Amino acid sequence: MSLHISDAVIWNEMGDGVSLYHVETGEFRSLNDTAAKIWVLLSDDGDPEAVKTKLSLLYGAGNAAIGARIRADVDAFLDTMVERGMLVETVQA
Question: Which domain holds residue 80?
Fold first, then answer.
């Protein structure tokens, strides 16, 4: 599975986060630093597994429990963004 930013989303990276605007629903969201990092990493290649791995290595400090928590938190964030139509799933053959 790959994820990409919906064509209906306008986003802007700022010094303290990312702002998102869904032009079809009118929803506006401001992402904090951590969520913004997830968003930007995902925008690079669309691979959720790569994002989880990078963040686990960056913040998990080799601790398996912390790494698992990071992966679960990233999954929860991405699921929410898909539910809100900010991200779109692409199934690769």
Answer: 2-87
